[in-house]
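User: I'm putting together a teaching handout on how sequence relates to shape, and I'd like one worked example. Could you take Tetraspanin from Poecilia latipinna, show the sequence you're using, and then write out its predicted structure as tokens right after it?

Assistant: Happy to. First the sequence, then the structure tokens directly below it.
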Amino acid sequence: MMFIFNGGIFLAGLVILGVGIWVTVDSDSLLNLVEKVVDLPDEVFKLNYVGYMLIGVGAVLLIIGFLGCCGAINENRCMLLTFFSLVLIIFIVEVAGGIVLFVFTDEVDQIFNNLENDVITDIQANYGKDPGMTELWNITMEQMCNYIFFMYLQSRCCGYKNYTDFYGSPFNIGGEYPPPCCHSSTGPCTSDLARISNVKGCFVKLVELLEENSIIIAGVAIGIASLEIAAMVVSMVLYCNAGKK
């Protein structure tokens, strides 16, 4: 039974570690766009540490799984107690993090509202003038929503919110919009075509993806929490039994 619990924790750690590495290595992600925007609130740049946090959590879970297996095999009370303590600490941190996100919802919304205004301002000032920024947005709009959460989505996104983000930008001087903002692959992307195509923004797409998979995400979170609780119970039972021998 202990092997099942620790195997699950080990696999969960492996997945989280993989996602963390992916987020950190993916230099063409939305975080690069965020860093190019001027005068962003300091809180936004804390998003850069998400990948490192996931790597840390994944690595800790891998170590915990290893300790649990070794402790169960050898009936080593020290390993079992260390395993229990680490799982308990992680469980408390997860619960505390969830509570903080729930309590400070208004602050999080304000951060994203400020982010939206600053990103759109940056697009209107530099898209079509700054080659690096323009290319980065083009890559993001074409590829960001293709592969995410290890799922393939036949979709594209346009700007941060929608095609109106590019209105007044250097690229828009001729009345054209970026090709990803139109479903038609032939001819220029005009205002009418962009309006009819109604391609959603990259941030909107990301939020919709999270909402559509909210049940799965919640299920995974509950499953991990249940696994952690069960692992703590089993490790404590083994710890007590080992002490009687």
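A couple of points you could highlight for students: Residues 2-244 form one domain. The longest strand covers residues 147-148.
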